[in-house]
User: Which sequence fits this backbone?
């Protein structure tokens, strides 16, 4: 009876109450991107600090009308430039500029190695129930295709097509912010001209002319600040996010194809460890393996 129940445990159909779920089943969380938040704070702090040191006042550059012209004009121009569906997708990606969805590469590698070990011992079909519970959509789809017995070249073609489409969609969303960065300074000039038009109406009151001209150029400042401190950097950040996501998907595909090929889990780990970025935390299994391999070398030295 014990032997007949043994295969059920790895598949996840029946697990003890205290059993630990595979890392691949956990939903990735969000973490604050200190680079984006800190960089924006430093940039604004430097600009406003320089203004104050130049005997200016922060109130000199706080104008609701100028902000309305810049944001309204820029958003409207971007909506005209891009399909509305793409514009809305880019808006939904706005939080990812300041919050990064954790992609535990080392943990993903550990999950793939555990799947490879189980497939090697019990057959790849034994991963069917585990594949259905994986939160990562790409890994779930690739592993499900492998469990269904699809040929390696077909799996590669299907998943590479998905990678290409994902990359294309991500790059298109980033270009929406690039377009905003291009329009924003021009809209700022329009705001400055509108302000000067109002100044010209009050030339009789010479005391207000200088103050009016100074206020008119606030829109230009807003346009330049929005373009160079937010829109263009946000586009670059999204481009980076796309590259990171593509890199991890390529790693997952390579791991799943290695499982289908029946490679030794140790060889699969060596192959996948190459995808770890420099400075990324290694998995606990990899650290233990590295320490074990280092002992004989130290003894020989």
Assistant:
């Amino acid at each position: 009876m014990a032997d007949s129940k043994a295969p059920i445990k790895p598949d996840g159909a029946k697990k003890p109450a205290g059993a630990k779920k595979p890392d691949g089943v956990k939903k990735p969380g969000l973490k604050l991107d200190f680079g984006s938040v800190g960089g924006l704070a430093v940039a604004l702090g430097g600009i406003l600090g320089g203004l104050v040191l130049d005997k200016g006042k922060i109130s000199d550059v706080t104008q609701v009308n100028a902000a309305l012209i810049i944001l309204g004009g820029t958003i409207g121009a971007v909506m005209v430039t891009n399909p509305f569906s793409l514009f809305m997708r880019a808006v939904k990606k706005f939080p990812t500029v300041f919050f990064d969805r954790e992609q535990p590469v080392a943990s993903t590698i550990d999950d793939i190695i555990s799947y490879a070990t189980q497939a090697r011992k019990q057959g790849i079909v034994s991963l069917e129930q585990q594949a259905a519970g994986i939160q990562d959509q790409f890994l779930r789809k690739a592993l499900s295709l492998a469990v269904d017995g699809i040929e390696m070249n077909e799996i590669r073609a299907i998943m590479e097509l998905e990678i290409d489409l994902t990359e294309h969609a991500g790059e298109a969303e980033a270009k929406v912010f690039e377009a905003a960065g291009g329009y924003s300074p021009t809209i700022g000039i329009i705001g400055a001209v509108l302000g000067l038009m109002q100044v010209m109406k009050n030339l009789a009151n010479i005391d207000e002319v200088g103050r009016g001209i100074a206020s008119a150029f606030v829109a230009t400042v807003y346009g330049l600040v929005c373009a160079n401190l937010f829109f263009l950097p946000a586009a670059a950040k999204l481009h980076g996010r796309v590259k990171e996501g593509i890199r991890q998907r390529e790693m997952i595909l390579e791991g799943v194809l290695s499982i289908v090929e029946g490679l030794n889990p140790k060889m699969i780990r060596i192959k996948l460890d190459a995808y770890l970025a420099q400075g990324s935390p290694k998995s606990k299994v990899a650290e233990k393996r590295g320490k074990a391999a280092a002992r004989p070398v130290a003894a020989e030295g």
About this structure: The CA atoms of residues 131 and 137 lie 10 Å apart. Residues 1-25, 278-301 have pLDDT under 50 and may be disordered. Residues 152-200 form the longest helix (49 residues).
